[in-house]
């Protein structure tokens, strides 16, 4: 998304700078015409008008979002268009002998009250005035200028649609958004208008050596500054992205460490149960009722989701969360088998379900006898905790990042809320093939840009592994790409501001360079 932001903003910056360059070149052309014209007023008015348009385009390139500046820019634009239109109507049409034409009427409808439609109407009237000179006079060479202003007027009038960009309709909001479909269409018309006008102006400038050198020098400066601006802005955004991803990589490792700590806590709580003398007494007497009472107390006080006490052959003596389920054998459970050998073991288990799936952290410890059986394994205690929304909410409260826990590729706990603001997007599947291949298949940490629930994120994923090393799920932390846009946009705007200033300052040395070349050519 940041690269898209870079492309969009750079394209807009380049368009405005090129437009300023074309309008400035047109103004210079008319200024040069005034030097050799008997009626200096008309070309000078047109020159000032195009300089006004150049100033507005240059100001637009630096993206300073200020209502006051926007109003001033619009007034300057209208003033410039007014001067161009007035100079065109003041200038007589070059007619064939014997033809007479009435004065040009300039009806400005009262309907357009705001400045934006007014500037569009002025551009359209300017285009019509150029076309009138072409159709009724002998100035066929003005047709491209008419086409250019017609395209620019369409672009300007399309801007009126953005007055309704705050609509509650999602469809229209996207259609009218900045860098959206209508925005692209509007700027396409502006680009075409600028290109046509630039080609028309160059057709005159190329026959005037001084002007040609001057404009070409500015053009080369423009290309140089645009290239360096894009390069440095690209490098800046890449650094921002890399920093964000590296931070996320660290954060997901911290989250993995939190899971390991949960394993240790689970093992410690299992050990507490295994070392309880009351539990051992009831276990040795095979007092299942007393054992169930003690286990239920521990299940509640430890806030565990499961607590199982089994014999040395793996037969369940009591299952605290469901006392009706006893006598089943759990000796094939890898961590139970390890505990029966006298080892402490912990795992992360994925329990798929039709309605609800779970990731559970479990730990099993041996229950060691006392007296004559001291040091011998007489049974096993296994406890477990379901990793739920409380866990990921805690991560978000500390880091500010969205988090999720996956059972295989299915979200079983997440900070992502549904539109109702209460339910969560659990049960949804991770569809990113890069994530699935790198994390679930290869067991590697994955960092990168990804679309999560139709939103652009910078993400980090880490595998969750069972006791035997198999991958049972994933951990996820993510940061919305839009959270970096404000920082990136400020950096881009400052870069563009500096570039625009340097481009405008390059006009001064370009002027003296052109004059120097002309003087030596004439010598």
From TrEMBL:
It is a multi-pass membrane protein. It is found in: Cell membrane. It comes from the Bacteria. The lineage of its organism: Bacteria, Candidatus Amesiibacteriota. The keyword Transcription regulation does not apply. Its main location: membrane. This is Methyl-accepting chemotaxis protein. It comes from Candidatus Amesbacteria bacterium GW2011_GWB1_48_13. Keywords: Cell membrane, Membrane, Transmembrane, Transmembrane helix. Residues 388-488 form the Single cache domain. GO terms for cellular component: plasma membrane. The chain crosses the membrane at residues 12-31, 43-62, 68-89, 101-125, 145-164, 185-205, 211-237, 494-517. InterPro entries: sCache_3, Sensor-like_sf. It holds the Pfam family sCache_3_3. SUPFAM superfamilies: Sensory domain-like.
């Amino acid at each position: 998304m940041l690269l898209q932001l870079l492309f969009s903003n750079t394209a807009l910056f380049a368009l405005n700078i090129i437009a300023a360059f074309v309008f400035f070149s047109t103004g210079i052309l008319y200024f040069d015409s005034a030097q050799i014209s008997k009626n200096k007023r008309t070309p000078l008015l047109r020159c000032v008008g195009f300089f006004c348009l150049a100033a507005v385009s240059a100001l637009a390139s630096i993206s300073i979002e200020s209502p006051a500046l926007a109003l001033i820019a619009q007034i300057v634009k209208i003033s410039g268009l007014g001067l161009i239109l007035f100079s065109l109507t003041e200038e007589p049409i070059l007619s064939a002998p014997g033809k007479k034409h009435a004065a040009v009427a300039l009806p400005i409808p009262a309907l357009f009250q705001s400045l934006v439609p007014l500037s569009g109407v002025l551009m359209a009237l300017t285009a019509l005035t150029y076309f009138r000179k072409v159709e009724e006079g002998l100035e066929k060479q003005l047709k491209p200028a008419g086409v250019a202003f017609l395209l620019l007027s369409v672009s300007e009038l399309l801007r009126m649609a953005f007055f309704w960009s705050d609509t509650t309709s999602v469809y229209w909001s996207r259609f009218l958004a900045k860098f959206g479909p209508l925005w692209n269409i509007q700027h396409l018309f502006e680009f075409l208008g600028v290109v046509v006008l630039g080609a028309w102006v160059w057709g005159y400038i190329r026959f005037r050596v001084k002007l040609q050198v001057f404009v070409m020098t500015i053009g080369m400066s423009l290309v140089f500054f645009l290239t360096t601006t894009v390069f440095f802005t690209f490098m800046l955004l890449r650094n921002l992205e890399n920093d964000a991803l590296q931070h996320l990589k660290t954060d997901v490792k911290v989250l993995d460490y939190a899971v390991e700590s949960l394993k240790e806590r689970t093992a410690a709580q299992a050990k507490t149960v295994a070392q309880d003398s009351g539990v051992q007494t009831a276990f040795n007497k095979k007092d299942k009722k007393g054992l169930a009472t003690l286990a239920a107390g521990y299940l509640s006080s430890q806030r565990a989701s499961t607590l199982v006490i089994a014999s040395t052959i793996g037969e369940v003596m009591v299952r605290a969360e469901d006392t009706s389920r006893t006598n089943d054998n759990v000796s094939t459970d890898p961590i139970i088998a390890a505990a029966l050998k006298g080892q402490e073991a912990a795992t992360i288990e994925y329990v798929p379900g039709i309605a609800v799936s779970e990731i559970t952290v479990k730990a099993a410890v041996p229950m060691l006898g006392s007296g004559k059986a001291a040091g011998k394994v007489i049974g096993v205690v296994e406890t477990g905790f379901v990793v739920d929304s409380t866990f990921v909410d805690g991560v978000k409260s500390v880091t500010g990042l969205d988090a999720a826990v996956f059972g295989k590729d299915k979200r079983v706990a997440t900070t992502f809320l549904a539109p109702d603001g209460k339910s969560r997007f659990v049960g949804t599947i991770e569809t990113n093939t890069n994530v699935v291949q790198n994390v679930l298949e290869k067991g590697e940490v994955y960092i990168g840009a990804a679309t999560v629930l139709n939103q652009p994120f910078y993400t980090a994923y880490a595998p969750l592994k069972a006791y035997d090393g198999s991958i049972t799920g994933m951990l996820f932390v993510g940061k919305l790409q839009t959270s970096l846009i404000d920082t990136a946009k400020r950096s881009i705007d400052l870069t563009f501001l500096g570039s625009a200033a340097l481009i405008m300052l390059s006009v001064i040395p370009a002027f003296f360079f052109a004059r120097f070349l002309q003087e030596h050519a004439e010598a």
